[in-house]
Design a protein that fits this description.
Layout (H helix, E strand, L loop, with lengths): L22 H9 L10 H8 L5 H15 L18 E6 L5 H14 L4 E6 L10 H10 L1 E4 L13 H8 L4 E7 L12 E7 L9 E5 L2 E4 L5 H17 L4 E6 L7 H13 L6 E6 H10 L6 E4 L1 H15 L6 E5 L4 E5 L9 H6 L5 H13 L3 H17 L13 H10 L3
Parallel strand pairs: 1-2, 1-3, 3-12, 5-10, 8-9, 8-10
Antiparallel strand pairs: 4-5, 4-11, 6-7, 11-12
Helix pairs in contact: 1-3, 4-12, 4-14, 7-8, 9-10, 12-13, 13-14
InterPro entries: Isocitrate_DH_NAD, IsoPropMal-DH-like_dom
Subcellular location: Mitochondrion
Function: Performs an essential role in the oxidative function of the citric acid cycle.
Amino acid sequence: MQFNFSRPVHHIHYPLFHGFSTTQQKLSLFLAPFHSFNSLPDRLQSEIESKSSTSMARRFTPILKQLRTRSPSRSVTYMPRPGDGAPREVTLISGDGIGPLVTGAVEQVMEAMHAPVYFDRYQVRGDMKSAPPEVIESIRKNKVCLKGGLRTPVGGGVNSLNVQLRKELDLYASLVHCFNLEGLQTKHENVDIVVIRENTEGEYSGLEHGVVPGVVESLKVMTKFCSERIARYAFEYAYLNNRKQVTAVHKANIMKLADGIFLESCQEVASLYPSIKYNEIIVDNCCMQLVSKPEQFDVMVTPNLYGNLVANTAAGIAGGTGVMPGGNVGADHAIFEQGASAGNVGNDKLVEKKKANPVALLLSSAMMLRHLQFPSFADRLEIAMKHVISQGKYRTKDLGGSSTTQEVVDAVIANLV
Protein backbone atom coordinates (compact mmCIF):
# COMPACT_ATOMS: atom_id res chain seq x y z
CA MET A 1 0.00 0.00 0.00
CA GLN A 2 1.63 3.22 -1.15
CA PHE A 3 0.67 6.88 -1.04
CA ASN A 4 1.90 9.84 -3.01
CA PHE A 5 1.98 12.70 -0.54
CA SER A 6 2.25 15.82 -2.66
CA ARG A 7 0.84 17.94 0.18
CA PRO A 8 1.05 17.77 3.98
CA VAL A 9 -1.13 15.01 5.33
CA HIS A 10 -3.45 17.35 7.24
CA HIS A 11 -4.39 19.13 3.98
CA ILE A 12 -5.57 16.00 2.17
CA HIS A 13 -9.31 15.48 1.94
CA TYR A 14 -10.45 11.87 2.41
CA PRO A 15 -14.16 11.27 1.69
CA LEU A 16 -14.09 8.12 3.82
CA PHE A 17 -13.58 10.32 6.92
CA HIS A 18 -17.15 11.73 6.76
CA GLY A 19 -18.93 10.91 10.03
CA PHE A 20 -15.74 10.92 12.11
CA SER A 21 -15.72 14.10 14.15
CA THR A 22 -12.32 14.17 15.84
CA THR A 23 -8.83 14.22 14.44
CA GLN A 24 -7.96 11.18 16.54
CA GLN A 25 -10.83 9.18 15.05
CA LYS A 26 -9.80 10.19 11.55
CA LEU A 27 -6.16 9.29 12.10
CA SER A 28 -7.12 5.97 13.69
CA LEU A 29 -9.10 5.06 10.59
CA PHE A 30 -6.35 6.21 8.24
CA LEU A 31 -3.66 4.25 10.09
CA ALA A 32 -5.71 1.07 10.51
CA PRO A 33 -4.06 -0.85 7.61
CA PHE A 34 -0.59 -0.30 9.13
CA HIS A 35 0.17 -2.75 11.92
CA SER A 36 3.13 -0.87 13.34
CA PHE A 37 4.43 2.67 13.23
CA ASN A 38 7.56 1.38 11.48
CA SER A 39 5.43 0.17 8.56
CA LEU A 40 4.04 3.65 7.89
CA PRO A 41 5.26 5.40 4.74
CA ASP A 42 8.40 7.41 5.50
CA ARG A 43 6.77 10.62 4.31
CA LEU A 44 3.87 10.13 6.69
CA GLN A 45 6.18 9.49 9.64
CA SER A 46 8.14 12.64 8.90
CA GLU A 47 4.95 14.67 8.44
CA ILE A 48 3.64 13.52 11.81
CA GLU A 49 6.91 13.86 13.66
CA SER A 50 7.52 17.33 12.22
CA LYS A 51 4.35 18.53 13.96
CA SER A 52 5.71 17.64 17.43
CA SER A 53 5.14 21.13 18.75
CA THR A 54 1.56 21.47 17.54
CA SER A 55 -1.68 20.56 19.20
CA MET A 56 -2.41 18.13 16.38
CA ALA A 57 0.72 16.15 17.23
CA ARG A 58 -0.35 15.97 20.87
CA ARG A 59 -3.57 14.34 19.74
CA PHE A 60 -1.64 11.91 17.53
CA THR A 61 0.79 10.82 20.26
CA PRO A 62 -1.44 8.27 22.09
CA ILE A 63 -2.31 6.59 18.80
CA LEU A 64 1.29 6.38 17.65
CA LYS A 65 2.40 4.93 20.99
CA GLN A 66 -0.29 2.30 20.71
CA LEU A 67 0.86 1.39 17.20
CA ARG A 68 4.49 1.11 18.31
CA THR A 69 3.60 -1.41 21.02
CA ARG A 70 1.52 -3.70 18.82
CA SER A 71 3.09 -6.99 17.91
CA PRO A 72 3.96 -7.21 14.19
CA SER A 73 1.55 -9.18 12.02
CA ARG A 74 1.08 -9.97 8.34
CA SER A 75 0.04 -6.94 6.30
CA VAL A 76 -3.27 -6.87 4.48
CA THR A 77 -2.57 -7.63 0.81
CA TYR A 78 -6.04 -6.90 -0.46
CA MET A 79 -9.63 -7.27 0.67
CA PRO A 80 -11.28 -10.03 -1.38
CA ARG A 81 -14.81 -9.90 -2.59
CA PRO A 82 -17.09 -12.83 -1.73
CA GLY A 83 -16.28 -15.64 -4.12
CA ASP A 84 -12.77 -14.42 -4.99
CA GLY A 85 -11.31 -17.63 -3.55
CA ALA A 86 -13.26 -19.91 -5.90
CA PRO A 87 -10.90 -22.17 -7.94
CA ARG A 88 -10.19 -20.88 -11.43
CA GLU A 89 -9.89 -23.02 -14.54
CA VAL A 90 -6.79 -22.32 -16.64
CA THR A 91 -6.13 -23.55 -20.17
CA LEU A 92 -2.85 -25.50 -20.31
CA ILE A 93 -0.91 -25.96 -23.55
CA SER A 94 2.00 -28.32 -22.93
CA GLY A 95 3.87 -27.37 -26.12
CA ASP A 96 6.84 -28.92 -27.89
CA GLY A 97 10.20 -30.23 -26.72
CA ILE A 98 10.66 -29.57 -23.00
CA GLY A 99 7.14 -28.12 -22.79
CA PRO A 100 5.49 -31.21 -21.25
CA LEU A 101 8.31 -31.44 -18.67
CA VAL A 102 8.08 -27.84 -17.45
CA THR A 103 4.28 -27.60 -17.59
CA GLY A 104 4.17 -30.86 -15.63
CA ALA A 105 6.47 -29.22 -13.07
CA VAL A 106 4.01 -26.35 -12.67
CA GLU A 107 1.11 -28.77 -12.17
CA GLN A 108 2.99 -30.59 -9.40
CA VAL A 109 3.85 -27.40 -7.55
CA MET A 110 0.31 -26.03 -7.86
CA GLU A 111 -1.06 -29.25 -6.44
CA ALA A 112 1.46 -29.26 -3.58
CA MET A 113 0.59 -25.70 -2.52
CA HIS A 114 -3.15 -26.32 -2.98
CA ALA A 115 -3.41 -23.33 -5.31
CA PRO A 116 -7.01 -22.53 -6.31
CA VAL A 117 -6.49 -23.36 -9.99
CA TYR A 118 -7.15 -26.41 -12.11
CA PHE A 119 -6.09 -27.06 -15.70
CA ASP A 120 -7.88 -27.76 -18.96
CA ARG A 121 -5.09 -29.57 -20.86
CA TYR A 122 -4.46 -29.52 -24.61
CA GLN A 123 -1.74 -30.95 -26.84
CA VAL A 124 -0.71 -28.39 -29.44
CA ARG A 125 2.34 -28.63 -31.71
CA GLY A 126 4.14 -25.75 -33.33
CA ASP A 127 4.00 -27.36 -36.80
CA MET A 128 0.19 -27.22 -36.88
CA LYS A 129 -1.20 -24.87 -39.52
CA SER A 130 -3.48 -23.26 -36.97
CA ALA A 131 -4.48 -23.62 -33.35
CA PRO A 132 -7.38 -26.07 -32.89
CA PRO A 133 -10.70 -24.23 -32.45
CA GLU A 134 -11.37 -25.98 -29.13
CA VAL A 135 -8.13 -24.51 -27.73
CA ILE A 136 -9.10 -20.98 -28.73
CA GLU A 137 -12.55 -21.54 -27.27
CA SER A 138 -11.06 -22.78 -23.98
CA ILE A 139 -8.85 -19.71 -23.66
CA ARG A 140 -11.76 -17.41 -24.46
CA LYS A 141 -13.83 -19.13 -21.78
CA ASN A 142 -11.15 -19.29 -19.08
CA LYS A 143 -9.52 -15.93 -19.92
CA VAL A 144 -6.12 -17.29 -18.80
CA CYS A 145 -3.68 -19.79 -20.33
CA LEU A 146 -0.35 -21.29 -19.28
CA LYS A 147 1.76 -22.41 -22.23
CA GLY A 148 4.93 -24.34 -22.90
CA GLY A 149 7.10 -23.34 -25.85
CA LEU A 150 5.87 -23.98 -29.39
CA ARG A 151 8.53 -24.67 -32.01
CA THR A 152 8.11 -22.37 -35.03
CA PRO A 153 9.38 -23.91 -38.29
CA VAL A 154 12.08 -21.85 -40.00
CA GLY A 155 11.10 -20.86 -43.55
CA GLY A 156 8.42 -22.70 -45.49
CA GLY A 157 4.76 -21.78 -45.49
CA VAL A 158 3.81 -22.52 -41.86
CA ASN A 159 2.96 -19.43 -39.83
CA SER A 160 3.94 -19.13 -36.17
CA LEU A 161 1.24 -20.45 -33.84
CA ASN A 162 2.56 -18.09 -31.17
CA VAL A 163 1.84 -15.10 -33.39
CA GLN A 164 -1.55 -16.55 -34.37
CA LEU A 165 -2.61 -16.87 -30.73
CA ARG A 166 -1.56 -13.29 -29.96
CA LYS A 167 -3.50 -11.91 -32.90
CA GLU A 168 -6.56 -14.11 -32.44
CA LEU A 169 -6.90 -13.09 -28.78
CA ASP A 170 -5.54 -9.54 -29.25
CA LEU A 171 -2.77 -10.09 -26.71
CA TYR A 172 -1.21 -6.77 -27.57
CA ALA A 173 1.33 -6.51 -24.74
CA SER A 174 4.23 -8.88 -24.12
CA LEU A 175 5.91 -8.46 -20.74
CA VAL A 176 9.26 -10.03 -19.84
CA HIS A 177 10.81 -9.42 -16.42
CA CYS A 178 14.61 -9.72 -16.41
CA PHE A 179 16.23 -9.51 -12.98
CA ASN A 180 19.11 -10.86 -10.92
CA LEU A 181 18.36 -13.82 -8.66
CA GLU A 182 20.27 -14.01 -5.40
CA GLY A 183 22.89 -16.74 -5.51
CA LEU A 184 23.00 -16.87 -9.30
CA GLN A 185 26.26 -15.24 -10.33
CA THR A 186 26.15 -12.92 -13.32
CA LYS A 187 28.48 -10.32 -14.82
CA HIS A 188 26.15 -7.45 -13.91
CA GLU A 189 24.36 -6.74 -10.64
CA ASN A 190 21.26 -4.68 -9.84
CA VAL A 191 19.55 -5.69 -13.08
CA ASP A 192 15.77 -5.30 -12.84
CA ILE A 193 14.33 -4.62 -16.30
CA VAL A 194 10.78 -5.01 -17.55
CA VAL A 195 10.54 -5.20 -21.35
CA ILE A 196 7.09 -4.35 -22.67
CA ARG A 197 6.70 -5.14 -26.35
CA GLU A 198 3.92 -4.41 -28.82
CA ASN A 199 2.70 -7.83 -29.86
CA THR A 200 0.36 -7.56 -32.84
CA GLU A 201 1.91 -5.54 -35.67
CA GLY A 202 5.26 -4.24 -36.93
CA GLU A 203 7.48 -6.76 -38.71
CA TYR A 204 5.31 -9.58 -37.34
CA SER A 205 2.30 -8.47 -39.38
CA GLY A 206 2.91 -11.45 -41.68
CA LEU A 207 2.42 -9.43 -44.88
CA GLU A 208 5.01 -10.90 -47.20
CA HIS A 209 4.89 -11.68 -50.90
CA GLY A 210 7.14 -12.27 -53.86
CA VAL A 211 7.32 -9.38 -56.31
CA VAL A 212 9.35 -11.05 -59.05
CA PRO A 213 11.55 -14.15 -58.86
CA GLY A 214 14.33 -13.45 -56.38
CA VAL A 215 12.62 -10.39 -54.86
CA VAL A 216 10.43 -10.54 -51.71
CA GLU A 217 8.55 -7.66 -50.14
CA SER A 218 7.85 -7.74 -46.38
CA LEU A 219 5.65 -5.00 -44.95
CA LYS A 220 6.13 -3.41 -41.55
CA VAL A 221 2.77 -2.08 -40.39
CA MET A 222 2.61 0.50 -37.58
CA THR A 223 -0.56 2.22 -36.44
CA LYS A 224 -1.25 5.13 -34.13
CA PHE A 225 -3.84 3.06 -32.25
CA CYS A 226 -1.52 0.15 -31.39
CA SER A 227 1.47 2.40 -30.66
CA GLU A 228 -0.52 4.53 -28.25
CA ARG A 229 -2.08 1.46 -26.66
CA ILE A 230 1.26 -0.17 -25.84
CA ALA A 231 2.68 3.14 -24.59
CA ARG A 232 -0.27 3.55 -22.23
CA TYR A 233 0.19 0.00 -20.97
CA ALA A 234 3.89 0.61 -20.28
CA PHE A 235 3.31 3.83 -18.36
CA GLU A 236 0.38 2.39 -16.46
CA TYR A 237 2.50 -0.62 -15.51
CA ALA A 238 5.29 1.69 -14.33
CA TYR A 239 2.84 3.81 -12.33
CA LEU A 240 1.14 0.85 -10.61
CA ASN A 241 4.41 -0.93 -9.84
CA ASN A 242 6.31 2.06 -8.46
CA ARG A 243 8.73 2.14 -11.37
CA LYS A 244 10.60 5.38 -11.98
CA GLN A 245 11.52 5.40 -15.67
CA VAL A 246 10.19 4.33 -19.07
CA THR A 247 12.54 4.08 -22.05
CA ALA A 248 11.18 3.96 -25.61
CA VAL A 249 13.32 1.86 -27.98
CA HIS A 250 13.13 2.85 -31.65
CA LYS A 251 14.87 3.31 -35.01
CA ALA A 252 13.11 6.51 -36.01
CA ASN A 253 16.31 7.97 -37.39
CA ILE A 254 15.98 5.56 -40.33
CA MET A 255 12.32 4.43 -40.34
CA LYS A 256 11.05 7.94 -39.88
CA LEU A 257 7.37 7.27 -40.51
CA ALA A 258 6.87 3.80 -39.01
CA ASP A 259 8.99 4.23 -35.89
CA GLY A 260 8.18 7.93 -35.94
CA ILE A 261 4.52 7.24 -35.17
CA PHE A 262 5.56 4.91 -32.34
CA LEU A 263 7.84 7.54 -30.85
CA GLU A 264 5.23 10.27 -31.22
CA SER A 265 2.69 8.11 -29.37
CA CYS A 266 5.14 7.44 -26.52
CA GLN A 267 5.87 11.14 -26.16
CA GLU A 268 2.17 12.02 -25.98
CA VAL A 269 1.46 9.38 -23.34
CA ALA A 270 4.56 10.34 -21.36
CA SER A 271 3.18 13.85 -20.93
CA LEU A 272 0.27 12.36 -18.95
CA TYR A 273 2.64 10.80 -16.38
CA PRO A 274 4.85 13.64 -15.14
CA SER A 275 6.05 11.64 -12.11
CA ILE A 276 7.69 9.03 -14.37
CA LYS A 277 10.95 9.85 -16.11
CA TYR A 278 10.80 9.29 -19.87
CA ASN A 279 13.67 8.87 -22.32
CA GLU A 280 14.34 7.42 -25.76
CA ILE A 281 17.11 5.29 -27.20
CA ILE A 282 17.91 4.00 -30.70
CA VAL A 283 17.78 0.22 -30.79
CA ASP A 284 21.40 -0.40 -31.80
CA ASN A 285 22.68 1.87 -29.04
CA CYS A 286 20.21 0.16 -26.71
CA CYS A 287 21.80 -3.25 -27.33
CA MET A 288 25.26 -1.84 -26.64
CA GLN A 289 24.07 -0.14 -23.44
CA LEU A 290 22.32 -3.33 -22.30
CA VAL A 291 25.49 -5.41 -22.39
CA SER A 292 27.66 -2.68 -20.85
CA LYS A 293 25.43 -1.00 -18.26
CA PRO A 294 22.04 -2.78 -17.96
CA GLU A 295 21.26 -1.38 -14.50
CA GLN A 296 20.43 2.00 -16.07
CA PHE A 297 17.17 0.61 -17.50
CA ASP A 298 13.87 0.19 -15.72
CA VAL A 299 10.79 -0.24 -17.94
CA MET A 300 11.43 -0.47 -21.69
CA VAL A 301 8.66 -0.12 -24.27
CA THR A 302 9.35 -1.33 -27.79
CA PRO A 303 7.80 -2.17 -31.16
CA ASN A 304 7.41 -5.85 -31.95
CA LEU A 305 10.73 -7.00 -33.45
CA TYR A 306 13.00 -4.84 -31.27
CA GLY A 307 11.22 -6.11 -28.16
CA ASN A 308 12.02 -9.72 -29.00
CA LEU A 309 15.71 -8.90 -29.42
CA VAL A 310 15.92 -6.66 -26.36
CA ALA A 311 14.06 -9.12 -24.08
CA ASN A 312 16.29 -12.05 -25.01
CA THR A 313 19.42 -9.93 -24.61
CA ALA A 314 18.32 -8.65 -21.21
CA ALA A 315 17.40 -12.19 -20.13
CA GLY A 316 20.85 -13.48 -21.04
CA ILE A 317 22.49 -10.66 -19.07
CA ALA A 318 20.35 -11.17 -15.96
CA GLY A 319 20.87 -14.92 -15.60
CA GLY A 320 19.68 -16.76 -18.67
CA THR A 321 16.45 -17.39 -20.55
CA GLY A 322 15.69 -20.38 -18.31
CA VAL A 323 14.87 -18.19 -15.31
CA MET A 324 13.02 -15.22 -16.82
CA PRO A 325 9.21 -15.12 -16.54
CA GLY A 326 6.83 -13.48 -18.96
CA GLY A 327 3.33 -13.22 -20.28
CA ASN A 328 1.18 -11.86 -23.08
CA VAL A 329 -1.85 -9.84 -22.07
CA GLY A 330 -4.79 -8.14 -23.72
CA ALA A 331 -7.96 -6.48 -22.55
CA ASP A 332 -9.74 -9.80 -21.93
CA HIS A 333 -7.21 -12.66 -22.06
CA ALA A 334 -3.69 -13.52 -20.96
CA ILE A 335 -1.18 -16.25 -21.83
CA PHE A 336 1.76 -16.88 -19.50
CA GLU A 337 4.92 -18.60 -20.71
CA GLN A 338 8.70 -18.48 -20.47
CA GLY A 339 9.63 -14.84 -20.89
CA ALA A 340 12.45 -15.14 -23.41
CA SER A 341 11.78 -17.16 -26.54
CA ALA A 342 15.36 -18.41 -26.97
CA GLY A 343 15.58 -22.04 -25.86
CA ASN A 344 11.97 -22.32 -24.78
CA VAL A 345 11.56 -25.72 -26.47
CA GLY A 346 15.02 -27.02 -25.53
CA ASN A 347 16.57 -29.93 -27.41
CA ASP A 348 16.21 -33.70 -27.66
CA LYS A 349 18.99 -34.37 -25.15
CA LEU A 350 17.25 -32.29 -22.44
CA VAL A 351 13.99 -34.11 -23.10
CA GLU A 352 15.66 -37.54 -23.05
CA LYS A 353 17.55 -36.88 -19.80
CA LYS A 354 14.62 -34.93 -18.29
CA LYS A 355 16.89 -32.07 -17.26
CA ALA A 356 14.90 -29.08 -18.52
CA ASN A 357 14.96 -25.95 -16.37
CA PRO A 358 11.44 -25.33 -14.97
CA VAL A 359 12.29 -22.05 -13.18
CA ALA A 360 11.10 -19.64 -15.90
CA LEU A 361 7.69 -21.25 -16.26
CA LEU A 362 7.28 -21.61 -12.49
CA LEU A 363 7.94 -17.88 -12.09
CA SER A 364 5.56 -17.20 -14.98
CA SER A 365 2.92 -19.23 -13.17
CA ALA A 366 3.48 -16.98 -10.12
CA MET A 367 2.74 -14.02 -12.39
CA MET A 368 -0.39 -15.87 -13.47
CA LEU A 369 -1.49 -16.39 -9.85
CA ARG A 370 -1.08 -12.69 -9.17
CA HIS A 371 -3.05 -11.91 -12.34
CA LEU A 372 -5.83 -14.16 -10.99
CA GLN A 373 -5.75 -12.21 -7.71
CA PHE A 374 -4.20 -14.98 -5.64
CA PRO A 375 -1.22 -12.92 -4.39
CA SER A 376 -0.37 -14.98 -1.31
CA PHE A 377 0.04 -18.13 -3.44
CA ALA A 378 2.23 -16.17 -5.87
CA ASP A 379 4.37 -14.95 -2.98
CA ARG A 380 4.80 -18.47 -1.58
CA LEU A 381 5.89 -19.83 -4.95
CA GLU A 382 8.33 -16.98 -5.64
CA ILE A 383 9.88 -17.23 -2.16
CA ALA A 384 10.35 -20.99 -2.55
CA MET A 385 11.93 -20.52 -5.99
CA LYS A 386 14.34 -17.88 -4.68
CA HIS A 387 15.37 -20.13 -1.77
CA VAL A 388 16.17 -22.99 -4.13
CA ILE A 389 18.20 -20.74 -6.44
CA SER A 390 20.10 -19.04 -3.60
CA GLN A 391 20.94 -22.36 -1.89
CA GLY A 392 22.51 -23.58 -5.15
CA LYS A 393 22.11 -27.28 -4.40
CA TYR A 394 19.52 -28.04 -7.05
CA ARG A 395 20.19 -26.41 -10.41
CA THR A 396 19.91 -27.58 -13.98
CA LYS A 397 22.86 -27.57 -16.36
CA ASP A 398 22.17 -24.10 -17.79
CA LEU A 399 22.58 -22.67 -14.26
CA GLY A 400 25.81 -24.55 -13.55
CA GLY A 401 24.33 -27.68 -11.94
CA SER A 402 23.36 -31.19 -12.97
CA SER A 403 19.90 -31.62 -11.43
CA THR A 404 16.92 -33.09 -13.22
CA THR A 405 13.66 -31.25 -13.65
CA GLN A 406 12.07 -33.42 -10.98
CA GLU A 407 14.83 -32.74 -8.46
CA VAL A 408 14.29 -28.99 -8.87
CA VAL A 409 10.54 -29.44 -8.50
CA ASP A 410 10.97 -31.50 -5.33
CA ALA A 411 13.26 -28.82 -3.88
CA VAL A 412 10.73 -26.09 -4.63
CA ILE A 413 7.94 -28.09 -2.99
CA ALA A 414 10.14 -28.71 0.06
CA ASN A 415 10.71 -24.95 0.41
CA LEU A 416 7.05 -23.95 0.23
CA VAL A 417 5.97 -22.18 3.41
